[in-house]
Amino acid sequence: MRTRALLLVFLSLLVASLGATGSDEYLDDFYYDYEESECLADEGSPCRNGGRCVDEWGSYSCVCPLDFTGKNCEIPVNSTCLTKGCGLGGECVFLEHIGRPMCRCGDKKEVMAFCDDGLHPTAAPATPTATAPPEVSSTPSAPPNPVPTSPNGVVLKPEVFYALVALLCILMKLILAAIVWTTIKFVRRRRRRIHRADEALSEPQSPKTVSTIVV
């Protein structure tokens, strides 16, 4: 309390000496911030276990170390659902309004520290009763998906089956490419032969000279 009173007196003298306008409003704001600050309470910071207090308007929040959680960093993390889980399919969620992780359990998503059997009732009666064994069909059921087999009847694994199909597709593409390349090469050769024959026919033939021998 002495520190608070001395600080208020010092601030009043400083504002009065400067003659600043709106000093009353400034003092009111400062007094509210100082007086209402939860982080500067007489009993000390509300954050425990080394948590850092962050002052907010009319409230506060704690920045907790990794091993603690909660509004005031008072809950060890290893005691929450973050490490223990929720059990029975519960979901661990962090609830901001209470500042700690909790479990949402059951179909109604009830908030609890841990899910128990009471939130998941079953249709079975409480007292044991004699029940007839389930009927087993004598006819075998067909498999949902056909299993690929090789020509000799050996069951193939899906990976092997798909690999064989891929290799077959690649082989067919290579054969088709070879046929196309051979056809193109044959056509080009034929065109060259025809072109050479046309050039030979179009060239003028030189007249034959007959030499006479005088005896």
UniProtKB/TrEMBL annotation:
Presence of keyword rRNA-binding: no
Ranges annotated as biased composition (Low complexity): 125-140
Database matches in SMART domains: EGF, EGF_CA
Keyword terms, alphabetized: Disulfide bond, EGF-like domain, Glycoprotein, Membrane, Repeat, Secreted, Signal, Transmembrane, Transmembrane helix
CC per GO annotation: extracellular region
Single biological process term from Gene Ontology: nervous system development
Alphabetized InterPro entries for the sequence: EGF, EGF-like_Ca-bd_dom, EGF-type_Asp/Asn_hydroxyl_site, NOTCH_homolog
Coiled-coil segments on the chain, per record: none
GO molecular function, one term: calcium ion binding
Domain EGF-like: start-end pairs: 35-74
Identification of the protein by name: EGF-like domain-containing protein
Main location: secreted
Disulfide bonds: C64-C73
Compartments, record wording: Secreted
Disordered as annotated region, ranges: 125-148
Transmembrane intervals: 160-184
Domain of life of the organism encoding this protein: Eukaryota
